[in-house]
Amino acid sequence: MLNRIVIAATAVMLTAPLAVAGPIDSACVRSDRARGNAPLCGCIQQVANQTLSRSDQRRAADFFRDPHRAQEVRTSKSDADNAFWARYKRFASAAEAYCR
């Protein structure tokens, strides 16, 4: 019984960092603004997992590499861009509140 608990705990500990890695986390860690703050980037990724689709996460990750791209999307007249921007703003607000 104890062996099963130890094995289960070890499996969780070994796979938890992998569950956090995602497009937002990767872009965040590489960005100048985050300065490699892995715990903060992991937290932001966790919020992204709860609030954004995988394709939205990939699109939002581009903002870390090219912040001007966010401005272009924000000011776009496209319905698709406007819908994405609304989802992105909800994500950003949630990440700001949760990852302080």
UniProtKB/TrEMBL annotation:
Keywords: Signal. It comes from the Bacteria. The keyword Signal applies. Residues 1-21 form the signal peptide. This is Arginine transporter.
